[in-house]
Every structure is written in structure tokens, then in C-alpha cells.
Amino acid sequence: MGLVFGLTMEIFLPLAIVAAMHYWIGSYPEPFPKSNEKKREIFEVIGFWFLAMAASTIYILQKTPAELNTPTTELQLGHMAFAVFPWLILPLLYVVFRQKWRASDLGCVLPRSWPMVLFALVLFGFAGTERLFDETLAPLPLSFLFIAVYQPAFIEEFFFRVILQGKLERALGQTQGWFYSGILFGLMHVPVDFFGPQFYAYGENYVNASFLLLSQIIAGWIFGIIYSKTRSILPGMLAHYFTDFRLGSVILHLMQ
Q1: Which residues contact 251 (CB under 8 A, 6 or more apart)?
Q2: CB distance 164 to 49 below 8 Å
Q3: What is the 3-state secondary structure (H, E, C) of 44-102?
Q4: Residues 6+ away with beta carbon under 8 Å from 38
Q5: Which of 33, 125, 189, 221 could disulfide-link to 182, CB 3.0 to 4.6 Å?
Q6: d(CA 18, CA 152)
């Protein structure tokens, strides 16, 4: 019974949300113009992804199990510094100076599809309030909450949605763009899930890690649809920030 409930809440329900978001909530805007160099776009996506994966993997591998089992602000800051070039600087410079992307291509616009914006904020806002109802969960430290605005909220939405999904959409189309970028988003969590902080947080269990990975792929699809329909980085950033119970932590700090 517990397994059925867990699968329903972690896999089947999120898949139903993906279907609802894709077919019924809001509408897709005009797609990005198709690239004349489809193979190059896909090659660049793979190249950027491997560089980012390598940076995260190397950083985690140089840490001891004890350090990974008790994440600290220093661990977060170190990961940020290690990842800033492959995740942010390199892809940003490339698309701006090599491909002449504008602010609208970078998600720096007011959101479209307000039904999708409201749905995303309510969905992830509710998901992020668990600490309000579970007395065993202490609020995350303020330092974590501030850092989380950049990582994962900004940096992951910028890298996976603006850069990778933007390129995949230009090469393959809107639906395939968010579908494949969601898979890449999930796979990027392999180091974290199987030999990093999440692995130790979930009891060093490879079955749990596998289900977590699958749920992260589905989350990547949800974030991808949000970006694809709103064309703005802001709704996904807020939704990403609310998740992992950070909204509950913010509220608890405000109540103190």
C-alpha cells in the first residue's frame, strides 16, 4: 500500500499534471524560429550539458561522505563558484555574441499565458509549504534561502530552460524541446542522487535514488512547459524557489 501511494504521489500524479499543463492550461505562443543548423544546435546542447555535468560531478567527487551528508552554506557557495562558468558565463556569452540572442530569447520578458503562471505558483507554492505542517522539519537557514535564489532557482532555469530548451526548440520544435530538456535536467541530478547529498539524505538507497531521478525528470517537464508557455524565466524561477520546502522556511522565519 505504501509503495502504491508513493508511486501515485511521486510519479503518477506529477505525470497527470504534465498532461494537464500541456493540453489544457494556458496556450503555447508562437514557437521560436526553426534553426537552419539543426545538428549544430543539438551538438551545442550536448556539449554544454556535458561541461555542466562534469563540473558538478568533479565538485561532488572531491567531497567526503561526511561533508555531503551534512550540507553547509560553504558547500553551497563552493558549488556555486565551481559551476558559474559552465552553467552561466560560457553559454550566455555564446548565445549573445555568437548567435545574437536578444533579451526576449533569454527569457527577460513579462510572462505570457497568465493561467499557466498562476497554476505554477499555486502548485509549487503549495508543494513548498510542508515545513509549516511538519513539526519535525526545521526551517532552512537564512543563508540557504538567500543562496537558493541563485542556485538552483536562477541558474538551473537559465541553463536548462533558456539555453538548452531554447536551442532544442529551435532544432526540434516546442514539445520535443521541453521533453528532451526535461530528461537532461533529470540526468544532471545523477551525481547528487547516487553519490551526493541526496543519496545520503535518502538513506544511501539506490532504489530511492532511482525514483528520485525519475521524479526529477518529470519536474523538468513541468518546468519546461512553464517556460515554453510563458516565455519568461521569472515564473519558473519562483516555482523552482518555492519547491524543496523553501516557501515554508521563508514563512516560518517571517513568523519568528
Answers
A1: 129, 132
A2: yes
A3: HHHHHHHHHHHHHHHHHHCCCHHHHHCCCHHHHHHHHHHHHHHHHHHHHHHHHHHCCCC
A4: 171, 172
A5: 221
A6: 21
Q: Is the pTM of this model over 0.85?
A: yes
Joined grid coordinates for residue 225: 512547459
* Distance from the Cα of residue 114 to its chain's centroid: 20
| Rounded Cα–Cα distance for residues 136 and 131 (Å) | 8
Whether the per-residue pLDDT at 53 is higher than 50: the answer is yes
- Using the predicted structure, report yes or no on whether residue 132 has a pLDDT greater than 90: no
Q: What is the pLDDT of residue 1?
A: 45
Q: Per-residue pLDDT tens for 61-76?
A: 998 888 877 767 788 8
pLDDT on residue 49: 98
What's the alpha-carbon Rg for the chain, to the nearest Å?
18
Task: Give the closest residue to 101 by CA, choosing from 170, 19, 200, 46.
Answer: 170
Name residues whose C-beta falls within 8 Å of residue 81's C-beta, 6 or more positions apart in sequence.
Answer: none
What sign results for the dihedral spanned by CA atoms 192, 106, 230, 126? positive
Task: Note the pLDDT of residue 6.
Answer: 58
